[in-house]
Design goal:
The chain has ten helices and ten strands. By secondary structure, the chain is α/β, with parallel strands linked by helices.
């Protein structure tokens, strides 16, 4: 009970921060990414005070209204489509080694979940990693989602049986009018995975995808001294060289090159690749990058 109470309290605090971000997007983060109303105009009608200024068609108003400024015409669009939001969250070993990765991942998937719930769209979270896959199925309920999140720890402690690939699994869902976000440190090899993304039919099925890369090396700066680190896998202390060209600097450069390769591989599919430094605020960074890429 104490853990459940603590989780609810933590989510309540996180939600306050998420609400600040959502307030900056009139129709929600996920709907901003995949404009739901579309551009098809069904008809026009006299302006109603409840209409927004963007609904006014000034050219039609000038043509059919005797006093266009006093009697403008508004566009009427076809009904909004339901948007499906899918969050793919990596819970593999490398994601568990640094607690900050898990915290960043939680903030990012709840950002999209609460955006979907607010607009009454359906949301689905799929945890994957180390031969594990846990699918919440479609939900519009925060409690159901929270229960799925709490089950991850239990499933990770069991013998895992999933032998497939997360991208193949999602491709088989045959999504339409959907936003897919993938949150991972992308520590595993990416070769071949870009080809799997072509099965999604992004353009034909109106699907947008964003890869959020949790980057533990982006803030690394070379120094003239070393650092003693504890390696959890071996249980030993190791002395790492922090000088330029040293062991840690090489790891940072390799990580940067790895991310750059992934970014180049997905650009042709109009997939956004956003790096989130572990020392940065994930919500603010995500919002800033989405704005910079003109996605929201």
């Amino acid at each position: 009970m104490a853990n459940a109470s603590s989780a609810r309290k933590h989510l309540a605090i996180l939600r306050l921060e998420i609400d600040k971000v959502l307030a900056q997007s009139r129709i929600g983060i996920h709907r901003s990414i995949l404009v739901s109303r579309g551009i098809e105009v069904k008809t026009v009608r006299p302006y109603d005070p409840a209409d927004t200024p963007s609904d006014i068609d000034y050219m039609v108003s000038a043509r059919v209204s005797e006093e266009p400024e006093l009697q403008p015409m508004s566009r009427v669009y076809y009904a909004e489509k339901e948007i499906s939001v899918v969050a793919l969250v990596d819970v593999g070993k490398t994601m568990s080694l640094i607690p900050q990765k898990q915290k960043h991942a939680e903030a990012l998937f709840w950002l999209f979940a609460l955006s979907a719930f607010k607009a009454h769209d359906r949301f689905r979270i799929i945890f994957f990693g180390d031969e594990l896959l846990l699918d919440s199925k479609w939900t519009g309920d925060e409690d159901v989602l929270q229960e799925a999140v709490s089950r991850v720890v239990l499933y990770k402690n069991r013998q895992n049986t999933f032998r497939g690939n997360i991208l193949s699994y999602v491709a088989e869902l045959e999504l339409r009018d959907a936003v897919i976000i993938m949150i991972s440190d992308f520590a595993s090899a990416w070769e071949g995975k870009a080809k799997l993304l072509t099965r999604f039919g992004f353009f034909e099925r109106n699907i947008k995808m964003i890869l959020f890369a949790l980057d533990e090396w982006s803030d690394f700066r070379p120094h003239s001294y070393g650092m003693r680190l504890f390696d959890e896998s071996s249980g030993r202390n190791t002395l790492e060289d922090m000088r330029r060209g040293g062991s840690l600097d090489k790891l940072a450069q390799a990580a940067s090159a790895h991310f750059q390769t992934i970014k180049q591989n997905v650009q042709s599919l109009s997939i956004a690749f956003i790096r989130i430094p572990l020392l940065a605020d994930p919500l603010r960074t995500a919002h800033k990058e989405l704005m910079r890429l003109c996605i929201i």
